[in-house]
Amino acid sequence: MKALAAVGALVAALVHTQAPPVSRLQVVAREYSFGFSRIHLDAGTAVIEMDNFGQDPHDLRVQRIGAKHIAGLGTIAPGGRGDLTVKLVPGRYSFWCSLANHRQLGMHAVLIVTR
Q1: How much is the CA Rg of the chain, to the nearest whole Å?
Q2: 47 has which bridge partners?
Q3: How far apart are the first and last CA of the chain?
């Protein structure tokens, strides 16, 4: 009976220590736009995958609107991809390409993070 109680306690401990699920977002870069696989994410850890389907190099910058910190990926060559893992809190996030005048040409978008 003690062994059964110990197994039950171990299972309960494992259930409470599991990490929350990771959200995923695919960002497709082209000249001169970003396409998102979704426009809403839940707060928490997120993996943002950028795929460059364009003919020019592109990068990715991410900033919660109203915050100072900017996360980002370096330059991704045409046909390339990169992953960025970030912790997102609720809010609106601005995404843009910081190369040359790509942002001014329309390479920007907004993601909404809830909960």
Answers
A1: 19
A2: 24, 85
A3: 42
SS3 42: strand
Residue 114 burial (C-beta neighbours within 10 Å; 0-12, 13-18, 19+): exposed
On whether the CB atoms of residues 63 and 99 are closer than 8 A, the answer is no
The closest of 83, 69, 78, 75 to 99, measured between CA atoms, is 75
CA distance 32 to 59: 12
Q: Give the model's pLDDT for residue 57.
A: 98
d(CA 42, CA 55): 32
- Model confidence over 43-98: pLDDT tens digits? 999 999 999 999 999 999 999 999 999 999 999 999 999 999 999 999 999 999 99
Q: Could you tell me the sign of the dihedral formed by the alpha carbons of 27, 33, 38, 42, in that order?
A: positive
